[in-house]
Amino acid sequence: MSAFQKETVLSVRHWTDSLFSFTATRDPGFRFLNGQFAMIGLEVEGKPLMRAYSMASANHEEALEFFSIKVQDGPLTSRLQKIREGDIILVGRKATGTLITGNLIPGKRLLLLSTGTGLAPFASLIKDPDVYENYETIVLAHGCRQVSELAYGEHLVNGLRNHEFFGPLIRDKLVYYPTVTREPFKNRGRITDLIASNQLFDDIGQSGLDIETDRIMLCGSPAMLEELPAMFAARGFVEGNHSQPGHFVIEKAFVER
């Protein structure tokens, strides 16, 4: 257990019957870059049961926040969804992940493309003042099946827009684009299709993909993480990593279990 820190659950909020978020105490020694993930979980029968979770909180915040799916027969999430204030969770001592701005070549527009709980690392990044210093525009796209599944993201963005410090900072820079696939909504369709057709950019009144100015981060469904990188590569975009920055980066380590 020495690889994990015990933290206390501070709050739990159930957004739908399949999505919830929670906050927990943060050890003063736990450091991370916005966009990274850590192993978190529960002690089950004396052993740690862990999965990778992106921090939805920013690295300047005192508490940790996580955004999770509920899987009724999932080894971890079937238990994690039942946590309450005061319960103990385990948090790995080391954070890692590719969704950090240092893995991108400098650019002017940052596209944060997510589906489902893949929104979590971007919840962290859009609370980072440096992101607004480094980019002229940040586009946060969040794709879900149903309108109700957008609630966490809408709450997050509205909170930032009304925040004393972040409100003025993001007002002219952060563009939030929620879209759904299975219900009527102002934005309809898969993010992959909306980018391929240029509909997403038309809807927000901006120009289409430009390799000279656009930098992209991806976190979400396996289908999106397969289709979009292929699309970007066909247009000359190069994937970045810790050793070689590129035009886009991908994170696959988010919980589906």
TrEMBL record:
Residues 2-105 form the FAD-binding FR-type domain. Pfam families: FAD_binding_6, NAD_binding_1. InterPro entries: Cbr1-like_FAD-bd_dom, FAD-bd_FR_type, Flavoprot_Pyr_Nucl_cyt_Rdtase, FNR_bac, FNR_nucleotide-bd, FNR_type-1, OxRdtase_FAD/NAD-bd, Riboflavin_synthase-like_b-brl. CDD domains: FNR1 (cd06195). Its cofactor is FAD. It comes from the Bacteria. Signal peptide: none annotated. Keywords: FAD, Flavoprotein, NADP, Nucleotide-binding, Oxidoreductase. Its EC number is 1.18.1.2. PANTHER family: FLAVODOXIN_FERREDOXIN--NADP REDUCTASE (PTHR47878:SF1), OXIDOREDUCTASE FAD/NAD(P)-BINDING DOMAIN PROTEIN (PTHR47878). Belongs to the ferredoxin--NADP reductase type 1 family. This is ferredoxin--NADP(+) reductase. It comes from Bradyrhizobium barranii. The lineage of its organism: Bacteria, Pseudomonadati, Pseudomonadota, Alphaproteobacteria, Hyphomicrobiales.
